[in-house]
């Protein structure tokens, strides 16, 4: 059943928000709310049944998305959104499971889960808001912080190399990999729609300002200045080899859809294996409530 | 309600405790497990992986225990009854998610087949040294339930009980096996499905408009909904109000955490399963659990041959601890003897509950084997003289 | 005649300026007035130029503004000509 409201007299994002929780906690000029707009437009465009969506977040600023969207939403533990989402999807294959979290959550503490979910090609749509820093805790170095950036834990400049997230998930086996910035609101919405149409592990990185802790400390101005930088320095490179899209402190930002390929997802492979090995003895997980759950408990 | 017959392997079997635990989970309705291999627990999920595709469920081997212990909770919110299985080092990694399950009231079962520790310790040899970790291992105040089987038959029966308690109270239940019980092969009788009582999920019957995810209406256990049903609920590990929304105030914290505690404590009498023998006439009571209770039985028999008045109290439920039972006994017996495969864990609880009214004799063992019954007998003899 | 209209939820605004900067037809400016949190919300300075493209709504991180097409513009099936953040 489609239940998206198409009423042009209200803000299109409104129907997807827990409006009783507004205003949200995100700072002025933070880009996370902007990504939620694109997400909401993608929900409208892709005509996905809202009841079928489960949104899972980890911990951090982006982790708070789960608390603001009017969907079945889970604010899990730090780094563990992907394994939680994996359990949801396996128990109820009909769910459209979205993981919405930050770069630190997904690629540092949750990095192991990220690569293994990509390897398995779990049917998850991962939206990774990358603000290049640990924001919730006060601006510490993240695995994504570009070299020479100053952080609260690298006060003399970050000297450790950063992850290039599209290359990481590409190498691990993701079937859809895209990167946009919060300037690219329509392109981001389109990518999220495409991920909804795709079966398997999709990964969409969104470069987003953290004016409070990243830009200010690095004398890069405020959120608006960052958006102007994104506009000026982003270059659309659809299909670019992911090994070449790493980020630097003030350099060009390669954006676009880098990977879009077909590979059977985990549950397709699982079903095929069981059918081959067990034949009629295999009973598929349907996600329907078992008859016993309907019974009243005496 | 009765068990789903698809999961019940009715008959008389000669299987080990790990396999019996798996059959108990299937009989209880578990249709999802996430695990990570670790000795001496792996046989539980190996059997589950083989059996579950034929009963309408799935198993996934995750990349580590952190993942396993949260994937199972995703499975629960997706509608399945779910569990994970591990041993000491993996159990240590799962602690954060025991707290998450307690806080979010996710009904689930953690099976810990205990081995010697600390750290890698004795992977193939028994201990009972995770008992305090099971109770207190995650940060913050919370309550869990822990059960301690002492035979493969109990690994079957009590695993069902563990799932039932998890569903009734919406709490993570720790199933505290040990290496000996896990690897011991004995006769296990699995009854017909219609002889097995299974507690269904406490699923809400309220409409989407009426439903409050953490509303309690006087009952301390809220009703659940599953993802995909249209309720559009929110679950968080943050301190939350009845709507499930984060609400980080001392008042909300007080209300929530006290309810999480009281829903278990107020039902402790009902939850606590004990095996008792000759407590009416006893001067000394041996308090034991798991494999040690079977060694203790030999010591009790030897003591009775010496005409010592010995009673037996076996903790089938370790947590919540049977405070009242111990306090009651303490007022009329001389002493408690507490053998366990650790250097003193549950004995502290016995001592606390006895509150100085009876003496407490620990019979510690660092693990790697079981007690010699004589060690326990000597403690009984010493206790009888006090 | 304006093809669109901007709606502003003043109290949600945190004055990031995204909407003002990226409005393709320069309809908005930050107001000198304050909302109750002390931010300067945007206000409409060129209502006649609004195309109703809702790019302001897509950029606004605080869900505080959105654009809609007028019924006439919708009936005419007017396509948004806005850049939409395209390079």
Summarize the topology.
The complex is a heterotrimer of chains A (298), B (386) and C (87).
Chain A: H1 32-46, E1 53-57, H2 65-68, E2 72-75, H3 81-91, E3 96-102, H4 103-109, H5 111-120, E4 124-130, H6 165-172, E5 176-181, H7 185-197, E6 202-207, H8 211-215, H9 223-233, E7 234-236, E8 253-260, H10 266-278, H11 291-294
Parallel strand pairs in A: 1-2, 1-3, 3-4, 4-6, 5-6, 7-8
Antiparallel strand pairs in A: 5-8
Chain B: E1 11-16, H1 17-28, E2 30-35, H2 42-51, E3 58-61, H3 65-77, E4 81-86, H4 88-93, H5 95-104, E5 108-116, E6 122-126, H6 131-136, E7 145-147, H7 152-169, E8 172-178, H8 179-183, E9 185-190, E10 234-236, H9 250-265, H10 268-271, E11 274-277, E12 284-288, H11 291-305, E13 310-315, E14 317-319, H12 323-330, E15 335-339, H13 346-354, E16 359-363, H14 373-385
Helix pairs in contact in B: 1-2, 1-7, 3-5, 11-14, 12-13
Chain C: E1 4-8, H1 18-22, E2 28-30, E3 42-44, H2 55-59, E4 65-69, H3 71-75
Antiparallel strand pairs in C: 1-4, 2-3
Give the biggest sheet of chain A: 8 strands, mixed
The CATH class label of chain C is: Alpha Beta
Could you name the ranges of chain A where pLDDT drops below 50 across 5 or more consecutive residues?
A: 291-298
| Biggest chain-to-chain interface with counts | A-B, 54 and 57 residues
Q: How many separate structural domains of chain C?
A: 1
Number of helices of chain A: 11
Order of helices and strands of chain C: EHEEHEH
CATH topology of chain C: Alpha-Beta Plaits
CATH class of chain A: Alpha Beta
Structural class determined from secondary elements of chain A: alpha/beta
Strand % of chain C is 15-25%
What value does the Rg of chain C take, in angstroms? 13 Å
The global form of chain A is globular
Number of helices of chain C: 3
Distance between the termini of chain A: 33 Å
- What would CATH call the homologous superfamily of chain A? Thiamin diphosphate (ThDP)-binding fold, Pyr/PP domains
Shape of chain C: elongated
The helix-strand sequence of chain A is HEHEHEHHEHEHEHHEEHH
Show unreliable segments of chain C: 80-87
